[in-house]
Amino acid sequence: MARPPTRDDIARRLAEKPSLEDLLTADDLEKQRVAAAARALTPAAVLLLVVNHPREPTVLFTQRTAHLADHAGQISFPGGRAEEADAGPAHTALREAREEVGVDPAAIEILGELPDYHTSTGYRVRPVVGWAQGPIAYAPDPFEVADVFEVPLGFLLEPANHRYESAFYKGRLRHYWAMPWQGRFIWGATAGMLVTFQRIVGR
Q1: Which residue of 26, 81, 131, 186 sits 20 to 30 Å from the alpha carbon of 47, by its own alpha carbon?
Q2: Domain boundaries, the chain
Q3: What is the pLDDT of residues 4-54, one digit of tens each?
């Protein structure tokens, strides 16, 4: 496995990121068009936080509690819908990360952003990429977050670990990305954003 990109590598590649058409496959682009045309989408943002440890960098994830209305029990990045007072996607992502897992925004350096990701639940999500020095002491909100954990960045950036799967849901065949890791199943929108992240910073 290749050496994971450094902070400077990630920042540079995000600044130089190619167009959306160059990042996504035809199937991905069709899903984006269909989702955008179906209805008005609610703006949201998530924080893809790279935590720098002496041994290797990792990425922060949360597991949502089972009672939430959207994506209950799923693995996700900290994040949520934008509020009128938010200055932009980075502000939304940092605010939500503080509320959900107790991470101080002052400890996070924003390196850049990924293209919007449109979800089947009606959100237009902007992934914001951050960098922080580890270790981090988390204080998860028990109402929203059942668990907090980190996954090695190198594992997530290895294309061999990206699985494109399909399943019938509500009478339709759905396709989705998945990245199983040590008994956890990272899939759906979160995995899709990670695939885009890999296509940018793993070049």
Answers
A1: 26
A2: 7-153
A3: 899 999 999 999 988 877 887 777 776 776 666 656 889 999 999 999 999
The CATH number assigned to the domain with range 7-153 reads 3.90.79.10
* Helix locations, 16-151, DSSP H: 20-23, 26-38, 89-101
Quick: pLDDT tens for 100-136: 999 999 999 999 999 999 887 788 899 999 999 999 9
Distance CA(21)–CA(10), nearest Å, equals 20
Q: Please name the residue ranges forming H helices in 16-169.
A: 20-23, 26-38, 89-101, 153-156
Amino acid occupying residue 114: L
CA–CA dist 73, 76 (Å, integer): 9
Position 108 scores a pLDDT of 97
Provide the pLDDT confidence category of residue 70 given band limits of 50, 70 and 90: low
- Confidence (pTM): 0.91
Q: Are 61 and 149 in contact (CB under 8 A)?
A: yes
